[in-house]
Each structure stands twice: as C-alpha cells, then as structure tokens.
Amino acid sequence: MRADHIRLLHSRLSASGHDLGPDVGRLTPALSRAVAAALPSHAPPADWQGWPATRQAVALLQALARAEGVEAGPLDGWWGPQTAHAAAAMLARDSTGHLPDWRDITPATANPNGWPAESGVTAFYGPHGTPDGPRPPLVQVPSPWTFRIAWNLSQTRSFLWAHERTAPSVARILSRIHHHYGEARIRELRLDIFSGDYMPRLMRGSRTRWSMHSWGIAYDFDDSRNRLHWGADRARLAQPEYRPFWEIWEAEGWVSLGRTKNYDWMHVQAARPD
User: Fold this and answer.
1) What would the pLDDT profile of 173-221 be if each residue is shown by its tens digit?
2) Distance CA 87, CA 211 (A)
3) Residues 198 and 162 placed together within one structural domain of the fold
4) Known Pfam families for this protein (predicted)?
5) Tens-place pLDDT, residues 74-113
6) In what order do the strands lie in the sheet containing 152-163?
7) Are 50 and 153 found together in one domain?
8) Domain range spanning residue 46?
C-alpha cells in the first residue's frame, strides 16, 4: 500500500468517528487499532485476526471499496491488480467527484470472426510455432503507420506478422485505428511502439502452456509503460484516450487482458480466455 492508499483509509475511518491523530501517510498504531475495530462489521474471513496489520488494512480497503460500489475482488487482504484498481477509483472519486469514466465498463463481447477459447486455439489455428522449428502460416500485414521497435526506437517496421486466419481482421483494425487517431496522434500516444507479435515461447511462469504469441495471434504495445503486472492505476494504455483503440480491437472479437482482467495492458489476442 502506498501512502495515498493509507491516507484514504485514514480519511474514511476519521469520517466514521475514529480518533486517529494526524494523517502521516503510514500505518500508525492508532490507525491499525481502528482498522481492527472496523473490520468485523464487513464480514472478513474467520482467521483475519491472525493477519499482520498491513494485510488487515488492505482487507478493510477492499471492504470499503465494495461498500462504495467499487469492485475490489475478494476480501482477502492481498494486494493485487483488482485492489489497486479499486483504490485508484476511490482516490479519483475523492478528487474529481466521480469514478473514472470508463474503466468499469464491461468490454464488448462481440466475436464476429469466431475466435476460439484459449483451450481451443490448436484446433482452430493449427499447431503453434516452436523456436528454430515449424511455424504457423504467417502473413505480413502492412501498417498504415510506421512502428518503432520498443527495445530500439531507432529501428522501425511497417508491418505486423499475423496468422493467416487473423490477417484480414488485423488489416481492418490497423486501418480503423489510423483513421480514428491519425498518424500524429498515434505517435503522441505511443501507439506506434511495437513490443511483440509472433514469438514461439511458453507463457510466463508456465512449463506447459504456450503463449498466444506462438500462433501469431497476439500483439504487445509499449511494454515499458504497460508492465505485465500493472493495473489500471499505472498502465498507460488504461487511460481514457486509449478507449477507442481497445474498442476497435474488441469490435473484431480480440481480447485485451487489461480490459478484461486488469493486468498485462500491453497485450491483445485473438483468443477468448477460458
């Protein structure tokens, strides 16, 4: 928890009548006692009293978010992307008077191309590629704007690799993004920062499951500003000005893991999460 999250707790508990002393942006003994006194009214798990003070504080923040109509995930006291998103939403409402205008919108569920579930990608697309081995049928889809390579911005590329079954969809998407934003705005928003397309590899943290990149059905953008585990409170592509970008992908059935799960905001794929 950051200092602003602790201040959020401090303000809520002070408003409900707890005497906490000055707000110093850290978990003081008085604040910890107030957290422990407030938690029982929110039906925490049975073992909550054995949790460290910081975990209790996170649990209370989750409970307060839920009470204020902000989804924070399970009341478990663990800080994750959904809790971070809830805290960011609460802070935004405190400062602006309203919740962020789009992060709680359910992404479009259209699937006009019939993209499969992740568990069915092999049946739909055929075998995945392997390092130094066979690769799926790939097509170079020309881009209306020039991409800069994330790990070397002086290096450019004018196309994306796509599986032959997704190539027509990718071409339509790139055309619509270009039409909506224009080249100057694309560069300003760093939508020209390309971080990956076809790359045969296992999913991060897995020894058996292959990444969607291994079929040429996934893309990453601007990874340095949209880290894997960052939620909407930190990821650049979670900002409101990127909503049309994601909606263009979603209209073709592609899935943003950021928009659906609030992590890996750099990533979009032509496969539906199971």
Assistant:
1) 999 999 999 999 999 999 999 999 999 999 877 788 899 999 999 999 9
2) 31
3) yes
4) Peptidase_M15_4
5) 889 988 767 877 888 888 788 777 665 544 556 878 899 9
6) 152-163, 138-149, 193-196, 218-221, 267-269, 255-256
7) no
8) 3-96
| DSSP designation for 272 | B
* Structural domain ending residue among the three candidates 61, 96, 131: 96
- The answer for residues whose C-beta is within 8 angstroms of residue 152's C-beta and 6 or more apart is none
CA angle 173, 177, 180 (to 5 degrees): 135
pLDDT tens profile 114-155: 999 999 999 999 999 999 999 999 999 999 999 999 999 999
DSSP output for 206-262: -SSPBPGGGGT-EEEE-GGGS-TT--TTT-GGGSGGGHHHHHHHHHTT-EEHHHHHS
Q: Is 182 domain-assigned?
A: yes
Count of domains forming the chain = 2
Indicate whether 34 and 123 sit together in one domain: no
Question: Does residue 206 form part of some domain?
Answer: yes
Cα 113 to Cα 135: distance, rounded to the nearest angstrom? 22
Phi, then psi, of 166 in degrees rounded to 5: -100, -10
d(CA 256, CA 38): 37
Q: What is the 3-state secondary structure (H, E, C) of 111-152?
A: CCCCCCEHHHHHHHHCCCCCCCCCCCCEEEEEEEEEEEECCE
CA gap 169, 112 in Å, rounded: 10
Note whether 145 and 239 are same-domain residues. yes
Which amino acid would we find at residue 269?
A: Q
Q: Which two tokens mark 60?
A: 């209370």
